[in-house]
Design goal:
201 residues, Aconitase, domain 4
């Protein structure tokens, strides 16, 4: 899995509450089991007009945000069904970090399995970051996972919390299987002792 250590880039403002997984990737795109190629369908119902042309009013279609790799979103991001295609589409588009006041639990955990950093901030902090994001491509945010900081164009930093296990997964680029294999020595030792003490098992 791709490591996440630091990220510097443009943040797209999406101050919409309850952005659900169907808005992120509509159900008609769920037939594939490939993690690539879904970026073009990200937010498709908001991003495209009925004739397939781009909706010029949608934030990710605006010139300043076409290369955004961070989203500043409203409360309860990723709610709805548990489709993992949602983080697949986000990652394939090029988004590596989402900042909100809260996330749906399943979506939040799926982010860590797909090299995406979900950051929870307070409402006041979110409003400050939205102000920065609204400045367009001139407002670059710098995210340091090791230090757990978000730095704005004015140099001021916001500290964020993250569970240590999830932090290590991103820093080391480990999926669930690779995380388990880190304890392979302990697992083997346990199995050897079990075979010795309880050979009938």
């Amino acid at each position: 899995m791709e490591k996440f250590t630091t990220l510097s880039g443009v943040a797209a403002p999406m101050p919409i509450i309850n952005i659900d997984t169907d808005m992120i990737i509509p159900k008609q795109y769920l037939k594939t089991i490939k993690r690539t190629g879904l970026g073009k369908a990200l937010f498709s119902e908001m991003r495209y007009n009925e004739d397939g042309s781009e909706n010029e009013d949608f934030v990710l279609n605006k010139l300043a945000y076409q290369k955004a790799n961070i989203i500043i979103a409203g409360d309860n991001f990723g709610c709805g069904s548990s489709r993992e295609h949602a983080p697949w589409a986000i990652k394939d588009f090029g988004i590596r970090c989402i900042i909100s006041t809260s996330f749906a639990d399943i979506f939040y955990n799926n982010c860590f399995k797909n090299s995406i950093l979900p950051i929870v901030v307070s409402e006041d902090e979110l409003n400050l970051l939205l102000d920065d994001a609204n400045c367009g491509a001139n407002a670059i945010l710098d995210i340091d996972l090791e230090a757990q900081t978000i730095s704005g164009p004015d140099g001021k930093s916001i500290k964020f919390n993250i569970e240590q296990g999830n932090k290590e997964k991103l820093l080391e680029g480990l999926d669930d299987i690779a995380t388990t294999l880190k304890t392979e020595g302990n697992i083997s030792s346990f199995e050897d002792k079990l075979a010795e003490n309880q050979p009938w098992v």
